[in-house]
Amino acid sequence: QVQLVESGGGLVLAGGSLRLSCTASGRTSSTDYIGWFRQAPGKEREFVAVIRYRGDFTYYVDIVKGRFTISRDNAENTVALQMNSLKPEDTAVYYCALARTGRSLVTGAGYDYWGQGTQVTVSS
User: What is the percent of the chain with per-residue pLDDT over 90, rounded to a whole number?
Assistant: First the structure.
């Protein structure tokens, strides 16, 4: 069993930055993947970025490339999502999730465990 807890959300002005963290507890492995998703009001959940715990693989959705960076701190069992140049359209609840395999990493169906989410609000 794995528990995931997100932190770091908040309110920021457009153009600003936030750093989200996802801390995992329980049985994790270096071959697991941690993904970030987001869901805005009235919209479907969408994939943002993913990293493999061993750090040899990352992938981003096009709309965040160059602005968001995903990284991991294995010693702390934490994955961070550094978000720069934030836009109002980045406003959403951000969730981290853990996948045991590399299948379907850009869809929610590929993930086995989910956190509760953290709110990110970007004002214009």
Answer: 90
Those residues with Cβ within 8 angstroms of residue 32's Cβ, 6 or more apart along the chain or in another chain: 52, 53, 98, 99, 100
Structure tokens at 101: 């395999």
Quick one: which of 54, 29, 45 has its CA closest to 106? 45
Write the DSSP symbol of residue 14: T
Distance (Å, whole) CA 105 – CA 25:
21
Model confidence at 55, pLDDT cuts 50, 70, 90, reads: confident
| Contacts of 65 by beta carbon, 8 Å cutoff, 6+ apart | none
Lookup: tokens for 69? 């960076």
d(CA 39, CA 60): 16
